[in-house]
Write a structure and sequence with these properties.
By secondary structure, the protein is mainly alpha-helical. It has two domains: about 1-90, Serine Threonine Protein Phosphatase 5, Tetratricopeptide repeat (Alpha Horseshoe), CATH 1.25.40; about 95-170, no CATH class. It has helices at about 1-10, 15-25, 30-45, 50-60, 65-90, 95-110, 115-130, 135-150, 155-170.
């Protein structure tokens, strides 16, 4: 039942809970469900070496070290490609398309620092171009708040939050 809930709303499951659920799935012989849960963990933490090492250990403990490494590296590449697509859209001036892509990605990967930073940055770029409005400010704040919870000392976050406050002040 927990796996079915995850499949409906993957963004509602923390990486820690997903890893525990994946282990339970592997223990019960539900290899496919366990692998999907581990992909969720990697998507949310594709650059976090500590989490990736925990994922490798879990796969190794289940006798799936090679398959686990393939899942981890494949999922990392998937996130990197998706992120690059969103960045390219923004660089080409397709900011609204970039926002759509990043918002969808952030919904599926709410704990991914880079995706949340780039979502906020795309929204801020849009406001810099078209002016800040209440809806855009609220939307940017969602992703900035997520980043604050993940890594408030991140330098990009510090720059984005300063720009956000400038835009918020100018919109009043």
């Amino acid at each position: 039942k927990a796996v079915a809930l995850f499949q409906e709303e993957p963004g509602n499951l923390s990486s820690e809970a997903a890893m525990e659920l994946a282990k339970a799935c592997f223990d019960c012989g539900k290899k496919e469900a366990g692998s999907e849960l581990m992909k969720h963990v990697v998507r949310n933490n594709h650059e976090d070496q500590k989490v990736l090492e925990q994922a490798r250990k879990l796969f190794a403990d289940m006798g799936m070290a090679d398959e686990g490494n393939d899942i981890i590296s494949g999922t990392q590449q998937e996130v990197i490609a998706l992120n690059n697509d969103g960045v390219d859209l923004a660089k080409q001036g397709n900011i609204q398309e970039s926002i759509k892509l990043f918002v969808k990605a952030a919904r599926a990967m709410p704990e991914n620092l880079i995706i949340n930073l780039n979502t906020a940055q795309s929204i801020i770029m849009f406001m810099q171009k078209d002016g800040a409005n209440e809806r855009s400010l609220q939307e940017a704040k969602i992703y900035l708040d997520r980043v604050r919870g993940l890594d408030s000392s991140n330098q990009r976050f510090q720059k984005l939050i300063a720009r956000f406050h400038e835009l918020a002040g100018a919109s009043k």
